[in-house]
Design brief:
By secondary structure, the protein is mainly α. The protein has 16 helices and two strands. The chain starts with a helix and ends in a 14-residue tail after the last helix.
Length: 365
């Protein structure tokens, strides 16, 4: 029995030494126990976070790492996570406005693609046109008006250089829609029914290239610094053009409308312009040409001839907005002017009788 007790006493120091060695491996001081709770809490904190850089995630991807994961200091992984996520954020921040406007225009694009597949070409044109008009007049006007009231300033400022570039792109989009309409209504086509469609498809490809160049400029600069409409029209006795141009875009742009007003109230007018003007540019320079190209692939005669009334409405809207943006300032009066202009446009589409009331365009010969 004495021999057994002496053996057990000899074993106790060895166990203590083993714990001492394990504590050294884990980076703990065996003399002080106040560090243990903090390390445990850090361990739990890291485990609760969903990250791409954790020992478990790395061990699942790198074979044989599991036997070393327990001996690596968690602070190393914390530093790796900060560096990794910071690099990801630096990549994604310039895409913020693009993603915002892209998802904000998802409703119009989905409706347009569906209507295009069903041959409702006028619904596609009017829905996209209404999105541009509502963003330029209603959304931007509300942002200017709300920002001027909330900030208590006589003037709010924004980037004049960005406003000039945006106005130029909008005018380019108007030119792309105006020339096919002029070609149609002057009856000066070289081949009737074919020249207009060919010009629209060529212009759409050019507009897509221009939009891609605009995105590259914006991203590098930031790094440096349908049938339901026709049924509703019959049930409510409201013109289809009014539903497509006024009602649908207001509902679809409600999220972007709220964001633009919120940022304007916080005196961040450049972001509000990025939401309102950026969405209009995306629809005019990407959405419309994309639908023309998609119609080309589907065998649908989708073109850039939006008819004279719609093209004139877009032209006057872009001219008014470009004139108000040229000085790089905004106030309540400018916002009220844009909002009243939107009421005029909405009333004009309410009394407008669309020549293709069923939402269809005659087939091209």
């Amino acid at each position: 029995m004495a021999t057994d007790s002496s053996d057990s006493r000899r074993l106790l120091p060895s166990r203590h030494n083993s714990h001492h060695q394990m504590d050294k491996i884990n980076g703990m001081n065996p003399e002080s126990t106040d560090q243990a709770p903090s390390l445990a809490s850090r361990h739990d904190e890291f485990e609760e976070e969903e990250s791409l850089v954790t020992p478990d995630a790395l061990s699942a991807r790198i074979g044989g790492f599991q036997r070393y994961a327990g001996s690596v200091n968690w602070g190393v992984f914390g530093s790796m996570k900060i560096v990794f996520l910071k690099s990801k954020l630096n990549v994604l921040i310039p895409f913020g406005r693009l993603l915002n406007s892209a998802f904000g225009n998802a409703t119009e694009l989905i409706i347009s693609i569906h209507a295009l597949s069903r041959g409702k070409l006028r619904v596609v044109q009017q829905c996209l046109l209404g999105s541009i008009l509502s963003n330029l007049l209603l959304v931007l006007g509300s942002a200017f008006f709300s920002g001027g009231l909330a900030c208590g300033k006589t003037m709010q400022t924004f980037s004049k250089a960005d406003a000039v570039v945006n106005s130029g792109l909008l005018l380019m989009a108007v030119m792309g829609l105006l020339i096919p309409a002029a070609l149609h209504y002057t009856h000066s086509e070289a081949q009737f029914g074919k020249s207009e469609l060919a010009l629209s498809r060529f212009s759409s490809c050019i507009m897509l290239v221009a939009y891609a160049s605009y995105l590259y400029f914006q991203l590098s600069n930031n790094r440096r610094r349908n049938e339901a409409n026709v049924g509703a029209s019959k049930a409510w006795n409201i013109p289809v053009a009014f539903i497509s141009v006024v009602l649908l875009p207001v509902v679809g742009n409600s999220a972007g409308h709220a964001n633009a007003v919120m940022f304007a109230v916080k005196d961040k007018l450049d972001i509000s312009l990025g939401v309102a003007i950026g969405s209009s540019i995306q629809i005019s320079m990407f959405g419309i040409p994309f639908c023309v190209v998609m119609g080309w692939m589907m065998g649908k005669p989708m073109d850039l001839n939006f008819h004279l009334f719609e093209t004139a409405s877009l032209l006057t809207t872009v001219l008014v907005v470009a004139f108000l943006l040229q000085d790089g300032t905004s106030n309540c009066v400018k916002g009220l002017m844009l909002f009243l202009c939107y009421l005029i446009v909405a009333a004009s589409f309410y009394v407008h009788a669309d020549p293709n009331s069923k939402g269809e365009k005659p087939p091209q010969n």
